[in-house]
Amino acid sequence: MSFNNLDINAIRQQFPILSRTVYGKPLVYFDNAASTQKPLCVIERERDYYLNENCNIHRGVHFLSQEATEAYENARKTLAQFVNAKDSNEIIFTRGTTESLNLLATSLGKLLVNEGDKVLVSAMEHHSNMVPWQQMIQEKHGELLVIPMDKNGVLDLNAYEELLKQQPKIVSIAHISNTLATINPIKEMIAMAHKYDIPVIIDGAQSMAHHIIDVQDLDCDFFVFSGHKMYAPMGIGGLYGKMEWLEKMPPYQFGGEMVDKVSFEKTTFNKVPFKFEAGTPNVGAALGLETAVKFIQSLDRKAVEEYEEHLLNYATDQLSNIEGLRFIGQAPKRSGLVSFIIDGIHPYDLGTIVDKMGVALRTGHHCAEPVMTFFDIPGTVRASFALYNTIEEVDIFIKAVNKAANMLR
Is 0.90 surpassed by the pTM of this model? Predict the structure, then answer.
């Protein structure tokens, strides 16, 4: 296996927080789907910006402003190359996936959605890829269509085809479910929607850190992501959009930088991408995001993908031996995480006890309450993995879950 060449201990040494203890025990951090830890190079890059380059961008002729502007725009180019965008101007910096989706619900919604129209999402969406569309479509007195899924967490593509025939104005779907780990067949789903000339948005929050993304190969119209789930700072992320759409869309917010000419009678707007980046951006975090991308690119991406799959498969196999444990989400193609419940035990109780043993998990509905309603459960316990996790940590996690379950039975 190619992942045998990965030096996981050397990788771990780049993440200072992994050496700390909690409750007197070594930290086992399995909450990566919520937010990954940051390597030292990312922390230092953001710190260096504030120490040596701190300045507002695009607005000054002096040295610091020019230097910071160049660094910020180079970060945009790095991200464009990372996802294989045609043009770096197709990358819009946002605070993350949530803001990117709200931007699209507002701007693309204003462009395309009229009174009584429809928007199509899937049954497994995070609230961020459901609530903005729901609220926008309610204002238009339209309808939110939902692609159904089965009890394994697999979308029904036949039903999807029938829903496409209803001519929704927009399709917005997750690449990977944050609750079920399902890898959706997005390339096929994009092609299906394009047969009906429907633009497709991909929520890549759970995939950017784990899989190679090629937006041109996927042919998606938009792809959104968060930096904090891919080893970058919090409060930074982005939106890729095909230039043909970005040029037609109205601005999302108004203020400085996104304007061309302003008078009390009329305002004209700046070109893409600046049209969508009103106000002072989080420059330091953008440079941290660029550094995180370079960190990911410095590794053997295929080996990392295989290693993370190995962790997931091992954890799933070991969990299957625990009495009364039921997996929530058993799609044939999964990535990054495992969700489960144990008969008669509330997820919060299990997670609280496991935490005292040094293992950080996530419990609850994971901002996907309709998914929990579908499975008729209050929530799940979710363990999510990153490239710095180890088999030894999985063994500690399994032992902790077993012990907690025995205490609570």
Answer: yes
Query: What digits encode the pLDDT tens for the residues 341-361?
Result: 999 999 999 999 999 999 999
pLDDT of 1 > 70? The answer is no
208 in a domain, yes or no?
Answer: yes
Answer yes or no: 55 catalytic: no
Angle between helices 283-297 and 301-319 (to 10 degrees): 90
How many Cα atoms sit within 13 Å of 214 on the Cβ side? 5
| Antiparallel, parallel or unpaired: β 325-327 and 267-269 | unpaired
Residue with tokens 């939110």: 144
Q: Write out the H or E segment, with its range, that includes residue 402.
A: helix 391-408
Q: Would you say residue 38 lies in a domain?
A: no
Q: Supply the mean pLDDT for the chain.
A: 96
Domain boundary at 238, 268, 297, which? 297
Q: Is the dihedral of CA 95, 18, 384, 219 positive or negative?
A: positive
Checking if the pLDDT of 390 tops 80, the result is yes
Same domain, 90 and 229: yes
Say yes or no: 137 and 286 in one domain: yes
Detail the DSSP E strand segments found in 101-257: 118-122, 143-147, 170-174, 200-203, 222-226, 237-241
Residue with tokens 């036949």: 158
Phi, psi dihedral angles at 36 (to 5 degrees)? -85, 160
- pLDDT at position 384 is 98
Q: What tokens does 43 get?
A: 């922390």
* Nearest-angstrom CA–CA distance, 199 and 182: 22
**For residue 144, which of 173, 121, 124 has the smallest C-alpha distance?**
121
**Among the options 41, 55, 220, 367, which is catalytic?**
367
Residue pair 277/92 in contact by the 8 Å Cβ criterion? yes
Looking at the domain assignment, is residue 69 inside a domain? yes
pLDDT in tens, 309-348: 999 999 999 999 999 999 999 999 999 999 999 999 999 9
